[in-house]
Amino acid sequence: MESISAFVHNPGDHLSIDSLTGLAEKAGGFIKDAEKESEQLPEHMHKFRSEFEELLTAADIDQLVVIVDDLDRCLPKTAIATLEAIRLFLFVNRTAFVVGADEAMIEYAVREHFPDLPQGAGPVTYARNYLEKLIQVPFRIPALGLAETRSYITLLQLESAVKTDDDQLKKLLTAAQKDMLRPWKSSGLDRKALTGAFGDPLPDFVQEALDTSALLARILSEGTRGNPRQIKRFLNSMMLRHAIAEARGFAEDIRRPILAKIMLAERFHPDFYEQLARIASLDADGTVPAIAELEKRTKKSKGTASESEKEKGSGKLKAVANSGDVHDWEKSDWISNWAAIDPTLTGVDLRPYIFVTRDKRSSLMGQVAVSHLEALVDKLMGPALQIRQAATKKDIVALAEVDAENVFDALRDRIIQADEYSNQPKGVTGLIELVKQRPALQKRLVEFVRSLPTPKLGMWAPAPWHESLKDTNAIQGLEGILRGWSQQVENETLQKAAKRVLEFSGKS
């Protein structure tokens, strides 16, 4: 113990060059040289493939097919690790991998895992090259067409109403499969097909499913780009909300086709939906007279207005015939098409529908469902200096189209939730920067500005939007909003600010 203590306190007295050399020579007998990894790795890979083939032979497996589904749901690190593992098997005979994934998400994972990769050489990015070299036979599942969407919506609703082993449902499934053999000739499951399975007259739940599919098919087919998962989520959300109404005791106030129509606005035109919700909540009867006037005009232009609907054009409708909301809505093809579809909302108390749908943090279509979008949203909610950094702009430019829309939705929702408009809300600067880098969102920005609550707006409101608008229609739309603000009398501060902006731009 004394010698150990002496060594610890005074190592220099016990160590010398000769003693260290002797120790190293003795240790060398117990240590072998490390194999050079660069020389051994190809040999290991070849040996692994050879042994794996022997394993397949020993197990009497003619063809091994490994299915990896929903890889895009994994975190970037896990997704890349899985793909790198698959690469080991690429040249193994009798082995195939089927990978199901969203290409855009895998490309994002590649960029995250290899952050120093250049953008690309030529028209194809390195992230895309990585994927194309790995996936040897790409197959993109075709989107559902209009007829397929209509049949899918009908069957989903009926499946929730009857047991899956029901003979009538089985008969309808057989008819649907036969109908889909030539989808380009089909119009989807119609009354004839349903009558053949369920009899005539149709049960109420079957008739409701038929009506709802007719209402939703076209807009859901176009709005979801034929994505069956999103269509099913929409229907699941609709059924859940109807169940909530039943549990709360006001299901008799909810008609499913009307609920579906309101949810279409919520999903595909959220700014318009917010306007509807605000107007309905302020109306004594819960109606939206401007919508009634819009429906009257759109159906009249298509020659479909009934006599009873024409008679409803009195009272409140006459008061809103020249409403700015109606004129603005008529300019939107989507809103006009939405107003023209049945059922009509004229005279309908929308408050129960708004109550059951107005969940501001709705996850109906997975808005900002992935972490990389949330990080960007947080940046765009920050100070102007952070928003205008080159890195933030680069992140915006790199967004896929659907991601850009999701970021817009998230920023809009956060601004609305704050409900503070006397000073410029956090998120407005980020929203403007987003639209500057993604001009396709200009129309949506104008619609958002139009939906802002006029009585609450401060003097900041007329000024910041112009810098992000280049499209002539968008600029004209904003000028129309400013003129409306300059002529209204309920908010004098906003009126004066709007007049000054119009005078400065020479549009007064």
From TrEMBL:
InterPro entries: KAP_P-loop, NTPase_KAP_P-loop, QatA
Residue span of region Disordered: 294-319
Pfam families, per the entry: KAP_NTPase (PF07693)
Residue ranges annotated for the KAP NTPase domain, each copy included: 33-244
Protein name per its UniProtKB record: Predicted P-loop ATPase
Natural source organism: Pseudomonas syringae pv. actinidiae
